[in-house]
Write a structure and sequence with these properties.
mainly alpha, 2 helices, 2 domains, 0% strand, rod-shaped, 94% helix
């Protein structure tokens, strides 16, 4: 009779163990959802921070602003390059005049 009571007790604890395992699985799913929500919130905060630093609320507007700035920089470099060419031409002209004057003074 004592053996029968032990067997009954073991059989009754098996369903309880399964229920505990099911709760753990449900808790893990709930924790995964919480994690996903926390990640989404963090990403939203980071995007907001970046948009604020860029002075815009739209990623496409930020991209176009960066592209426009790069184009302006290229244009500025082009203008500076032309200025440098002009400066070089003027320096060459000055050197030619200097050389001509030096030859003239030596000849006299």
């Amino acid at each position: 009779m004592a053996d029968e009571q032990k067997t009954d007790t073991v059989e009754e604890t098996a369903p309880v163990t399964e229920a505990v395992e099911e709760k753990k699985v449900e808790e893990n799913l709930y924790n995964e959802k919480q994690l996903e929500d926390a990640i989404k919130a963090r990403l939203a905060r980071e995007r907001s921070k970046i948009y604020k630093e860029l002075g815009t609320d739209n990623l496409e507007a930020a991209k176009s602003a960066i592209k426009e700035k790069e184009e302006q920089e290229i244009e500025r470099k082009k203008q500076r390059g032309e200025f440098e060419d002009l400066l070089k031409q003027q320096a060459d002209k000055f050197n030619e005049e200097k050389t001509a004057l030096t030859k003239t003074t030596r000849a006299n």
